[in-house]
Amino acid sequence: MSKSKTSFLKHNSVNYLLPFILITACFSLWGFANDITNPMVKAFSKIFRMSVTEGALVQFAFYGGYFAMAFPAAIFIRKFSYKKGIMMGLLLYAIGAFLFFPAKESGSFYPFLVAYFILTCGLSFLETSANPYILTMGPEETSTQRLNLAQSFNPMGSLAGMYVAMNYIQSRIHPMSTAERALLTDAEFVAMRQSDLSILITPYLAIGIVVLVMLVIIGITRMPTNGDKNKEINFFPTIKRIFSVANYRQGVIAQFFYVGVQIMCWTFIIQYGTRIFMAGGMEEQAAEVLSQKYNIAAMIIFCASRFVCTYLLKYINPGKLLRILAIAGAILILCVIFLQNIWGLYSLVAVSACMSLMFPTIYGIALKGMGDDAKFGAAGLIMAILGGSVLPPLQAAIIDMGTIGNAFPAVNASFVLPFICFIVVAWYGAQTYKRSKKSII
Q: Cys-Cys link to 261, which of 32, 314, 374, 418 (CB 3.0-4.6 A)?
C-alpha cells in the first residue's frame, strides 16, 4: 500500500482497511434497497389499480422510517457502539424484507407499507452508524474524502437494485395496462394481483438472506471502537448544542432538500420517460421498461461521477464544488421542465452527474469537527432523509393533474420542485465555502 493510501485509512498505527471494506459493503446494501424501491411506486400503482399519488405512499413509508428511527438509533449507538448499531440495522433490514411474504399473503397494499417502514428503520440504524463510523477511520483532514469514497459504492448497490427491478419485477409482472386492469372482474383482478405480488416479493426475500449473512460476518469480525468511549446520553443539551452551529443546522436543511431532489428525479424518471415514449406510440409496459433503462443509465453516470468528484475534492473546496454542481443541476432541471421531448429525458439523466457529490459532502461538511457529538449530529442528518418522504408525494400530486393550463404536461411542470431543491443546495455550498475562506484568513 502506498504512503498516501496508508495515511488515508491508517491513523496512530491502526489500519482500518478490513473494517472500511465491511462497512462500505453496507453502503451497497442500502443502495440496493433504495433503488429497487423507486420503481415500485409505478408497480404498486398498477398492481393495486391506484393513482400515482397513492403509489407514492411507498416513498412516504420508506423514508418515514429513516425519520422515525434516526434519534433512537443515535441513542442506541451512544449507549452501545457503532458496531452494535450496524448489527441492529442489518437485523431490522432483514425482518422488513421477510415481512414482504405475509404482506403478499394479505393481498392488501398497506402491509407492504409496514414492511417498508420496518426495513427502513433498519436502514436508518445503518446510515446513522456507518457514515460517522467511516469518518473515524483515519485522519480528520481526509474524512470527507473518505466518506465520498465509501459512498461511491452505494450507487453500485443502487445499480443492482435497478437491474433487479427492471429484469425480475417490471418485465415479469403482467403487461396489462392500468386502464385495462380497471375493466377486470374482482376474481380476475385478485388472481392477477397475487401473481404479480409473488414476482415482486422474491427479490426482497433474497436480499433479506444476504443481509443476514452480512450480519453474521460483521458480528464475528473485530471492529475499531473509535468514538465509542463516551456513553453519556445528555440528549437535549447535545441537540441544543449541535443545532446552535450554523454549519450543521444549515446542513440538515440542505440534506432534506438534496434527498428530496434525488428521490424525485429517480422515481419520476419512469413517469417522465413513459409519457414521451407512449406519445410516440409505444405500449405502456414497454415504455416503462425502456424508461427504467434510462434510470439505470442515470445511476451509472451517478456512480462514475462520484469517483470523479472524490478525486476533485483533493483540489477543490467541498463547498465550492457543491455550489457549482447544484447550479448545474438547476440548469438541467429547467431543460427537463421546458423540453417536452427526448432531450428533456437526456437532461434528467444528466442531472445524476451533478447529484453524485452531494449527500456525502453535505454530511461530511456538517459533521466536521463535532467529535463525540457526531452520533447525534449524524441522526439529524439522517432524519433529513425525510425529504425523500415528503417531497415525492407532492410531485406525484402534480403529475396526477395530467396537464397544467391547456396543454402543458403536468409531469414536466412537477420538476419545479427539484429545481427549488437544487437552489437550496447551491445556497448551502456558497455558505460553507464563504465560511471556509474566513477560517483560512
A: 418
> pLDDT: is 13 or 43 the higher one?
43
**Tens digits of per-residue pLDDT, 288-304?**
888 888 988 998 898 88
Provide the percentage of residues in the chain whose pLDDT is more than 70.
Answer: 93
Measure CA 277 to chain center: 27
162 Cβ partners below 8 Å, 6+ apart?
Answer: 35, 36, 38, 39, 292, 295, 296, 299
Q: How far apart are CA 246 and CA 368, in angstroms?
A: 12
284: which 3 cell numbers?
405502456
- Are 119 and 92 within 8 A, CB to CB? yes
C-alpha cell at 375: 452520533
Q: Which residues contact 407 (CB under 8 A, 6 or more apart)?
A: none
Domains of the chain, start order: 14-223+233-440 (1.20.1250.20)
The residues facing 408 across adjacent strands are 404
Q: What is the pLDDT of residues 70-85, one digit of tens each?
A: 889 888 988 888 889 9
Inter-residue contact 264 to 130 (CB < 8 Å): no
Q: Are 376 and 388 in contact (CB under 8 A)?
A: no
Q: Which of 314, 414, 430, 371 is nearest to 140 (CA)?
A: 371
Backbone angles phi, psi at 403, to 5 degrees: -135, 155
Q: How far apart are CA 399 and CA 67, in angstroms?
A: 25
